[in-house]
Design goal:
With 467 residues, the chain is mainly alpha-helical. It has 17 helices and no strands. The chain has a domain of 220 residues. 62% of the residues lie in helices and 0% in strands. The two termini are 41 Å apart.
């Protein structure tokens, strides 16, 4: 049980050790403590799921993102620093909005944690797959390797061309891709698919090529995406070759190691990005703590939204996503994403869009009931996506990673505008790369054969067909 507390304890250490706590008392002291502690609840529950059932990677990722986006800034909130200093809110208005925003965070985190536990109690434990040579060969044939190579070459060329041509100037948000629509082609599924197909050298080659361009432009998300695909592909191969993936402690250790590697990548990419002046860091080189935590702060925009934006807005924020399939050339008045409009109204000096996260959009749309609904849906969707990552065939695994990225994007942004566009692109590439019926006549999303002692009840799973 000791390993359960590793991730939450590390986060508490970061907050206690590195964050300068304000010298205040009463509600203004207790509420930040309560808010930060509540934000840790879903993280702890996700670690419990990983320890008990080797399930919970997606909830852990979503809850960790929520914690990092809010907790450090909540504990050291200062209206004279950060984005909130440009909002020109009156002192009374600022205090009221800050308290409401923290109450919203408490409600969301509590709902998220509770529904993770409730949903997990109603689901069966994961079964261990039987790794046979025939099953492994059939499994590796589920990837269209020639298609993956072609897509990898095109996506890598587009990424490198943009990186070399634009460099850090892309962070000015006033530049456009030099390769046009090819820049939208995601290379992450290629790296994961080739690893699943038993081509690790090709996988690593396209991983490096596809990540080099975004590194030059300082795009942290584009650098991390291929790493996430490769990470879960490696986990999938490990589970099948080791008939179940090993001990839960090993799975948690792999997750922690992957988190450290990705954190190092984020620091390096942010250092590259810091060469360009922005409204957040003024072009100054950031420390690791600033790059990983303080620069990810979205508490200030959320407080501003609580104070300035009308509510409830109903479905108005999410209806904008319906316009995604229509090109702007055909509809010049096509509505922009809500985070872009919000930034333009409240922080005109800041470039690009400024999200208020899923928590903020749900509160603006439906009030406190919307926050509860958002926490419930996030818990259920996170666990459903997590189960895809433990399937047998390559397509469910790759689709699971694409949906995991969608969940993280929804948590971080919240408007479902760019998030749906990114999801459709990734799923389209996954469908091109993977086969649905080449492996087995069984349904795509099926469980696998399990090892069970003699005399136990038969589980509701499909046996792997003989070949």
């Amino acid at each position: 049980m000791f390993s359960l507390a590793v991730v939450p304890a590390a986060m508490v250490a970061v907050v206690v050790r590195l964050v300068p706590w304000p010298e205040v008392g009463g509600l203004d002291r207790a509420l930040p403590l309560l808010t930060s502690g509540t934000l840790l609840l879903p993280v702890f529950v996700s670690c419990v799921l990983l320890f008990r059932q080797r399930r919970g990677a997606v909830p852990l990722a979503a809850s960790t993102v929520c914690f990092l986006l809010f907790a450090p800034r909540v504990m050291q909130f200062d209206p004279t620093t950060g984005l909130i200093s440009d909002s020109a809110l009156a002192p009374g208005e600022l205090m009221s909005a800050t308290r409401v925003a923290q109450v919203v965070l408490v409600i969301f985190s509590t709902t998220f944690a509770v529904f993770l536990l409730l949903a997990d109690r109603r689901s069966d434990s994961l079964q261990r797959p039987v790794a046979t040579s025939k099953a492994t060969k059939a499994w590796t044939r589920g990837v269209r390797v020639p298609v993956a190579v072609v897509l990898g070459v095109v996506a890598s060329f587009a990424a490198i061309a943009d990186g070399v041509a634009l460099g850090p100037s892309a962070r000015d948000f006033g530049t456009s891709s030099v390769v046009g629509p090819l820049a939208l082609l995601p290379a992450g599924p290629v790296a994961g698919a080739l690893w699943l197909a038993g081509r690790p050298r090709l996988s690593l080659l396209f991983l490096v090529l596809s990540a080099s361009g975004p590194f030059l432009t300082g795009s942290r998300q584009s650098v991390l995406t291929p790493l996430l695909y490769l990470f879960f592909a490696i986990l999938a191969v490990r589970r099948r070759t080791r008939a179940g993936g090993g001990r839960p402690h090993a799975v948690i250790g792999i997750l922690v190691a992957a988190g450290l590697i990705m954190s190092a990548v984020v620091v390096g990419t942010t250092s590259r990005r810091a060469a360009v002046a922005t409204a957040i860091n003024g072009g100054e080189r950031q420390s690791a703590y600033e790059a990983l935590i303080l620069s990810q702060n979205l508490f200030d925009p959320m407080v501003t939204a609580v104070a300035r934006e009308p509510r409830p807005q109903g479905t108005a924020i999410y209806e904008r996503a319906l316009a995604i399939p229509i090109p702007r050339q055909l509809w010049p008045e096509k509505p922009l994403s809500y985070d872009f409009d919000f930034r333009r109204r409240n922080f005109p000096a800041y470039g690009g869009a400024l999200p208020i996260t899923l928590i903020g959009t749900s509160f603006l749309s439906f009030g406190y009931s919307g926050v509860v609904l958002a926490g419930m849906l996030l818990a259920l969707i996170s666990l459903a996506v997590d189960r895809l990552l433990w399937r047998v065939q390559p397509r469910p695994v790759l689709m699971g990673v694409a949906l995991m990225l969608f969940v993280i994007d929804v948590v971080r942004i919240g408007g479902l505008y760019r998030e749906f566009l990114t999801l459709f692109l990734h799923l389209g590439v996954v469908l091109l790369l993977s086969r649905s019926s080449a492996l087995s006549p069984q349904p795509l999303f099926r469980d696998v054969a399990v090892s069970r002692p003699a005399g136990t009840l038969h589980s509701n799973v499909f046996q792997e067909p003989a070949r």
